[in-house]
TrEMBL record:
Regions annotated as coiled coil: 383-443
Protein name: Recombinase family protein
Every Resolvase/invertase-type recombinase catalytic domain range: 2-147
Taxonomic placement: Bacteria, Bacillati, Bacillota, Bacilli, Bacillales
Protein's UniProt keywords contain Coiled coil: yes
Domain of life the protein comes from: Bacteria
MF terms (GO), sorted A to Z: DNA binding; DNA strand exchange activity
Keyword Coiled coil: yes
SMART domains, alphabetized: Resolvase
Domain Recombinase per the UniProt entry, residue ranges: 155-287
Length: 496
């Protein structure tokens, strides 16, 4: 029997570093004692209340494909602390004939006497997590009232020392003041963001050293700074909360439930300036709510910049589109790639008319069908070969693990070997996805007669509609010199 071992710890702190290895050794002892084979370990370092765990998702996926016979975990709480999630896993296991057991002896889906207790244990583990969550919220609430800043990162322009905010002794405080001043002068969020980017001012994420920090200021970042009461010296916390321990969705609390400590720290902006900005923000928000709905233009979410890959934005004063990155961040990020909407319409209509004429030949459909059959057979054969190679990589990984457990190879050799296997497996998965995409395109192309009829029907109106664009076009790329490349939703038939 093939056994899948599931291992989970809540955090990656030093106190739990040995726990994954301990869990693995316990599972391996079970495998050896019951004369089974290890299929693979599935490992997560996350809370058990969430279902968004890569290891767990892979475990469920492989269980649905009957890749193994038994799932083994140290205890049910390792698999999860979420009743709905645990029952989902139990249903999948039972439907596919996969046995689910825990090493504490409380769960065994093939032992009828333990079936009735499954729900009780699932409820106990979820309830325990909810109680812990409630206690943590209570502690936070007390600390909010004491005036202690409980965020992990202080607002831009401040430093954090022993739970208190202090104004930084650097350029950031002047940037904050500049943002407020320029907004009162009539500048918009995006214009201020472009101004800061063009001045090479580090973003808030860069200042705190985030590994994924963006290079450019965003209008949304500017807006958050303008709305933050901390800059007027007030500490406002408890604005959001999670709705449930198993649901990480956050909701905004009623303003009366926020914890506000006035004059808790030194302000960067005067209270008068801050209140002026809030009134202006509210006025603009009301105008926005009362305005007409924004029109979606023909090539929204269809036209893209060929350089940065971002979408093109429509600009009424140009009667066309410019690169969205350029629009937000200026020429430090990209160039404008401007193109008129009518120019795109004419290019596409001409292209579709030529294509319709070229495709309308009596023997073309049979020739395409013949080609599709030949390539499909070849691709199916290659897919089978890839699947065998994927299985081979899994077998190599299992063998390497057994050698490591038996101390036939060192940890370094094992890690190097697994890294090589994973790299090869990823290459195989990419190739498999590309082949499937080609097969789907060929299948669409084989219905050429339907495509021709729809093309003729649309072209009779001699204009380009949204329906026509969505039916035939995958995306459009615009280069800096206004060259246009069109990607159709069916494969090209050049050379037929």
């Amino acid at each position: 029997m093939k056994v899948a071992g599931y291992v989970r710890v809540s955090t990656n702190n030093a106190g739990q570093k040995e726990s994954p290895e301990n869990q693995k050794h316990m599972i391996l002892d079970y495998i050896n004692e019951n004369d089974c084979d290890l299929y693979d370990f599935y490992t997560d370092v996350q809370t058990g209340t969430t279902d968004n765990r890569e290891g767990l998702k892979k475990l469920i996926h492989d269980a649905e494909n009957k890749e193994f016979d038994v799932i083994v975990a140290k205890e049910l709480s390792r698999l999860g602390r979420n009743v709905e999630l645990l029952y989902q896993l139990k249903r999948v296991a039972e439907t596919k004939g996969v046995r689910l057991i825990t090493l504490d002896g409380k769960v065994d889906t093939q032992d009828f006497s333990k079936q009735a207790m499954f729900g009780l244990y699932a409820w106990i583990y979820e309830s325990e997590s909810q109680r812990i969550s409630d206690r943590i919220k209570s502690v936070y609430h007390m600390k909010y009232k004491s005036g202690k800043f409980m965020g992990s990162i202080p607002p831009y322009g401040y430093s954090l020392q022993n739970g208190k905010l202090f104004v930084r002794n650097d350029y950031t405080i002047e940037i904050v003041r500049d943002i407020f001043d320029k907004y009162l002068e009539g500048w918009g969020h995006d214009k201020i963001a472009r101004y800061l980017t063009n001045k090479d001012i580090p973003t808030p994420s860069q200042v705190v050293g985030k590994s994924n920090a963006g290079l450019y200021w965003q209008g949304s970042t500017v807006k958050k700074i303008l709305q933050n009461p901390h800059y007027a010296g007030d500490l406002v916390q408890g604005r959001e909360t999670t709705t449930n321990v198993t649901n990480k969705t956050r909701k905004v609390n009623n303003q009366k439930d926020w914890i506000t400590i006035s004059d808790a720290h030194e302000p960067i902006i005067s209270r008068d300036v801050f209140e002026q900005v809030q009134k202006l923000l509210e006025q603009k928000a009301k105008r926005g709510r009362g305005g007409t709905r924004k029109k979606k233009h023909l090539f929204t979410n269809i036209a893209y910049c060929s350089e940065c890959g971002n979408g093109m934005w429509y600009r009424a004063n140009r009667n066309g589109y410019i690169c969205g990155t350029y629009a937000k961040h200026g020429n430090k990020a990209c160039t404008n790639h401007a193109v008129k909407e009518q120019q795109l319409v004419e290019i596409i209509l001409d292209d579709l008319k030529v294509m319709s004429d070229r495709l309308d030949h009596p023997d073309l459909e049979s020739r395409i069908e013949k080609r599709v059959k030949a390539t499909t057979k070849k691709n199916e054969s290659r897919l089978q070969t890839i699947e065998k190679q994927v299985e081979k990589q899994k077998e190599l990984k299992r063998n390497a693990l057994q050698k490591f457990i038996s101390e036939d190879i060192s940890k370094q050799d094992y890690d190097d070997f697994v890294e090589m296997i994973q790299e090869k497996s990823q290459q195989l998965e990419v190739e498999k996805a590309e082949i499937k995409k080609v097969m789907a395109e060929n299948k669409a192309t084989s219905k050429i007669s339907a495509i021709i009829e729809q093309l003729k029907e649309f072209l009779n109106f001699n204009n380009l509609s949204t329906e026509m664009i969505l039916r035939f076009i995958e995306k459009i790329e615009v280069t800096e010199n206004k060259d246009v490349k069109i990607y159709y939703k069916f494969a090209q038939v050049e050379g037929l």
